[in-house]
Amino acid sequence: MPTWPPVTPPAGVQTAPYAHPIAPAYTAVPLSPSQHAKARFTWPEAVRQYVRRSFLPHNLDPSVDRAAMESKLKEVINSARESGRMETQNWEAFALPQELVKQDRARAMRAPQESLPTNPAVSDGSHSRTSKKRKSADGPNDKTTGWRATVRSQQTLGDRVTFSKADKSATEETAKGLSKLQKRQKRFDGGYQSTYRSPTPPPSDGPVMGTCQDLEKSYLRLTAPPVPSKVRPEAVLRQSLVIIKEKWRNENNYHYVRDQLKSMRQDLTVQHIRNDFTVSVYELHARIALEKGDLEKSDKAIKHALDVRSALAVGNYHRFFQLYLNTPNMGAYLIDMFVARERLAALCSICRVYRPEVRLRFITEELGFESDVQAAQFIADYNGEHLLQARPGEDMTVATAKAGQLFECPRREAFRRVDIKGQV
């Protein structure tokens, strides 16, 4: 290929800028990998087990919410990762996050108490500060004479004690303060009178003997020990009950009757009267409240009885046996009269739904038995021994698929049984 000599342009002619190659203004650099791409981190199995153990139901603490627990868990794991203790940390013995949260809370509650001064010198200092506040309230206002603090700070201890005349104005101010102090002291020339009063003795636990003769009395909630002059005895209460019955029949004023009956119940309670008359008062109040549909004021026992009736009406045996295990007072003795019948009905439902078998412990919990032995004995009493199956290393099970009509006949017989009054 021939080589052409360079050509020089004529004088006065300018060459185009693109006629010669132009060097790039920058140097090409290969792209670096994204800084956001992070290497994938493999969590140790011990850490995974620690996280799973933290969220197990039996390890959860109602006092620690999930957000606080997750925050503490992230803090623990990030701290171990940054310090390089992920592999060496004994995660099996390490405290769970909910325990760490509770420890932090306890430490925060102890912090104000631990920060209180225990040194007597510090305590005296705080007492002196309190005394200064009290003196400033009684004496002249230091804010209006701010120069006094400067003058006093410049004086020596001897000057302040001997009231040196080096600063005459400061001495005059001190004398004025002393004169005011003497005037205040003259107010108490009669001697110190203690304002302490002995505490009121606690009210007696014994009954109150009422002396009030009012046949009608409005109900007032007790905010102090009852006074005998405002409590009606039983004889007066019997007359009041007759008047209340007559007014209920004639006027049918529920608000008035409810107020009077509540007042009667209060008088009976503070006098510890528990007899047939007390029962008649409570019975009348309950009957009138049911007649008017006032169930909002029902106590715990009445609400529980209504819940039991609702559970039986809809056939919710799970709810019924929960109420049976949480019966207030002695209501469980009433439910014991028909609980066997309801257990038979519930057992029939379980055998139809849960197949081919269920754990005996499930039946114990669902039917409100005290133990697995009691549940097994109940099944055996109705010829169900062959349904109980025990396998080595496993819980005892009940072969519900083999039950068939085993419990249906006793159930029908239990619900068909009627006493002489026509009650089931």
Automatic annotation (TrEMBL):
Annotated stretches, region: Disordered: 105-207
InterPro entries with a match to the protein in the record: SAC3/GANP/THP3, SAC3/GANP/THP3_conserved
Stored Pfam families: SAC3_GANP
Biased composition (Basic and acidic residues): 165-175
Start and end residues of each SAC3/GANP/THP3 conserved domain: 223-289, 298-383
Highest taxon listed in the record's lineage: Eukaryota
Name assigned to this protein: SAC3/GANP/THP3 conserved domain-containing protein
Protein species of origin: Phyllachora maydis
